[in-house]
């Protein structure tokens, strides 16, 4: 914990008057690319199987989190303590089989319970069966989306069934085009791409 507090202090010093001009000029928006890059470098380190490399890359990713928390703190929004409190509360709330009386004996049961808690207790329901869409998801998130879709019934045993779904979605895109509604067209195009 002493090392963590030291790192928080280093970030605050870098952003303070007399600190680093580059660090002081950064915003949440300007740091987005670095957050993504550092996350991918962590993934590469995991693939490489080198613990020293993973340790270093996790540190770089942690720095990005501290950077964003420091910027938010300067704007009176939240600080790193709020980030830690938020994730601690979420982990306890979403693991009632560990911290409460619920039971979940398999990874699948835990996943179902997690989704149920998000929808009911946290009221984080979305129109989409996929749990909402994020504009910043990288292509690597497609596998997780496919698993969610399969749990919701979008899973087929034969290729012919999938082709039928593609044809159905293509018809819906044509209808949306006839309506001239760009948002509806975008939605239907996404459905086609997902089906493909």
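-> sequence recovered:
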């Amino acid at each position: 914990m002493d090392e963590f507090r030291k790192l928080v202090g280093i970030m605050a010093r870098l952003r303070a008057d007399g600190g680093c001009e580059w660090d002081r000029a950064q915003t949440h928006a300007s740091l987005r690319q670095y957050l993504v890059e550092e996350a991918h470098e962590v993934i590469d380190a995991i693939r490489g199987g080198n613990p020293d490399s993973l340790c270093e890359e996790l540190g770089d990713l942690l720095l990005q989190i501290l950077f964003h928390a420091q910027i938010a703190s300067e704007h009176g929004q939240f600080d790193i303590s709020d980030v830690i409190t938020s994730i601690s509360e979420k982990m306890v709330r979403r693991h009632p089989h560990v911290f409460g009386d619920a039971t979940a004996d398999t990874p699948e049961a835990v996943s179902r319970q997690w989704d149920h808690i998000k929808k009911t207790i946290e009221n984080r329901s979305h129109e989409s069966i996929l749990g909402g869409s994020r504009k910043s998801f990288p292509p690597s998130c497609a596998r997780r989306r496919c698993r969610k879709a399969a749990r919701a019934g979008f899973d087929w045993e034969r290729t012919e069934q999938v082709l039928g779904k593609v044809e159905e979605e293509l018809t819906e895109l044509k209808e949306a085009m006839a309506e001239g509604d760009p948002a509806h067209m975008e939605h239907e195009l996404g459905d086609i791409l997902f089906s493909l």
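The chain has a mean pLDDT of 87.
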